[in-house]
Fold this protein.
Amino acid sequence: MNIPFTQKLTNLNIEYKENVPMSEHTSFKIGGNADIFITVKNISELKAVISLCKETETPYMLIGNGSNLLISDSGIRGVVIRLEGEFKEIKVQGDTIVAGAGASLTKLCLDAQKASLTGLEFGYGIPGSVGGAAYMNAGAYGGEMKDVIVSCTHLDPELNVGTLSIDELDLSYRHSAYMKGEYIILFVTLKLKEGDADAIKARMEELMQKRISKQPLEYPSAGSVFKRPEGAFAAALIEECGLKGRSVGKAVVSEKHSGFIINKGGATCQDVLDLVEIIQREVKEKTGFDLYREIIHI
Ligand SMILES: Cc1cc2nc3c(=O)[nH]c(=O)nc-3n(C[C@H](O)[C@H](O)[C@H](O)COP(=O)(O)OP(=O)(O)OC[C@H]3O[C@@H](n4cnc5c(N)ncnc54)[C@H](O)[C@@H]3O)c2cc1C
């Protein structure tokens, strides 16, 4: 007899939800339903879910905070996994922090500040998870995860726990070694420097104010849509081409920051993809620059 996938999850004592709108789990507020959505609390649950997916040939993917994702209007077939429970813990030991990949990057920055540790101020306000930030090598205002990560502990595709050191992580602009395979980052170890808690707080608040004044945070988005092309800035090129305010459906090039596409309410994934294509074409024609997407389309 063929036991349904969801019954197998129940047998393993794993909680799940069916037909979950991904628009509720992405900062863009875009995306159709995921067949099954599971939050795992520890490594053994994570391994059990992935083993079951492999055994039943059910596709699966991991999301962090969904702040760099553009999810298809038809949703995601198979299982979407999110890390919670022990993956949200942050442990400070001297100048070293071990953070669960499911913890919020902003919470990590706040914990570092409370412990008078400097180096992570740049990350305050990046709305990702620690795992997503390591995966993307997130960065801002002259800092990037590369500067503070010592190593990442992961689950490899064969379900072995392993570690990559900073040299093996191959971190560069919005790139990490994890982009080439089905690895799941579990924990990230960071090394910071002793600093002054008040000065760290002041710098974090200054950077947050910059974000508030420059970015359209009042609308759903996935941050900068395009990577920075060599020798130019995507936002400046888009503005130069007169594309501010250009729209497809409810997807609009932000007037406040032309590197952002905002969802003015009910934008679809297709609206965003069509607008991205218009921007890429017009920027290429008028400036000669190729723009490549930073946001990940699923
Ligand atoms: C308003 C706004 C401002 C932003 N500002 C910045 C900025 O200043 N700098 C910047 O770099 N980015 C910025 N971003 C983009 C985004 O926040 C970052 O890329 C962030 O690192 C994504 O993390 P996430 O947890 O949301 O990942 P998700 O969007 O959920 O996932 C992104 C990718 O990472 C993978 N992933 C996530 N977690 C793991 C894990 N544990 N193991 C393996 N793979 C994983 C996912 O599978 C996916 O492929 C901004 C976004 C918004 C909405």
Observations:
- The longest helix spans residues 269-287.
- The longest strand covers residues 33-40.
- The domain at 87-214 is CATH 3.30.465.10 (Uridine Diphospho-n-acetylenolpyruvylglucosamine Reductase; domain 3).
